[in-house]
Specification:
By secondary structure, this protein is an alpha+beta fold. The protein has 3 domains: about 140 residues, Elastase, domain 1, CATH 3.10.170; about 80 residues, Roll (Nuclear Transport Factor 2, Chain: A), CATH 3.10.450.490; about 70 residues, Nuclear Transport Factor 2, Chain: A (Roll), CATH 3.10.450. Strands 1, 2, 3, 4, 5, 6, 7, 8 and 9 form a 9-stranded mixed beta sheet that branches. A hairpin with a 6-residue loop joins strand 6 and strand 7. It is globular, with a radius of gyration of 21 Å.
Amino acid sequence: MRLVASTPRKNAVRVAALVASAAMVAVAFQSGPAVAQPDAARDSGAVAVAFTAAQRVTAIQSAQADTASEAKTLGLGAQEKLVVRDVIKDADGTVHTRYERTFAGLPVLGGDLVVHESPAGKQTVTKATSAKIAVATTDAAVTASGAKSTALKAASAEKTAKAETGTAPRKVVWAASGTPVLAWETVVKGFQPDGTPSELHVVTDAATGKELFRDEAIETGTGTGKYNGTVPLTTTKSGSTYNLTDGARGGHKTYDLNQKTSGTGTLFTDADDVWSGGRQTAAVDVAYGAAETWDFYKNVLGRNGIKNNGVASYSRAHYGNSYVNAFWDDSCFCMTYGDGSGNA
């Protein structure tokens, strides 16, 4: 997407982020066409309960402990295992559990599914694929170095500058399209033609060496905030939607607290990666301010994030009711922003 940038003005969001953070000294394959949508079987009026970080961890651990039984209920094969990735609970008590699958210990790309369980215990399932997950062998005819070569050629075709594979290709089962096959997934990092960081995922058939799929994990959108006008935002695509996760800057995430005063909030999402209006206006300023802060630490102080460990903090917008301030909380390693008088 074309970036539309404007000259940023000094503003309260940016200054608050710089001052607060200066006081302080996330690959599972999630992009691509075949991702089970957690909202697919949800009531359009369903409202998710906001978990605290501890509650979310507990919910995931509880679901993970029951994966063997759940796999049996779903009729999965003997070599298939479930890995819990998220749990969402609606206000009416309905629970949505997102799973990824493994086959013979290998990650299954495009094999994720969501189990929806009503308060009465009735289950329905949304699957990214209806294909049977199985491959004849887990021995690859194509070597990892061969897969790496294919991935670098794909990066060259995308005009990726300074392309390199920081980690070795990983063996996977590709199930996002057609009949599942043994494959290699290679991640090539570098820079896109416009200077945006690149994280290109390339999937190669482990039997033939044919490229099966490529996807750029770092998305760029635009947003219009209250203080900065239209600015570029680095976002992440998950399934058919985009979210305010900055993969180029330590995985910084921007959440909506929805006027609450506790919890993490709900990650901001958008259908077309053009962010503006309503509750997104503040989110744009927050996300852009966090990006500017990260770049300040890197370019001026020579630090890779606040802690210099490459891991970003996160931000929460829309805190409380008419809260006229912003603050840093070391316990959550996060910035929080109120909406000001009258939540304006």
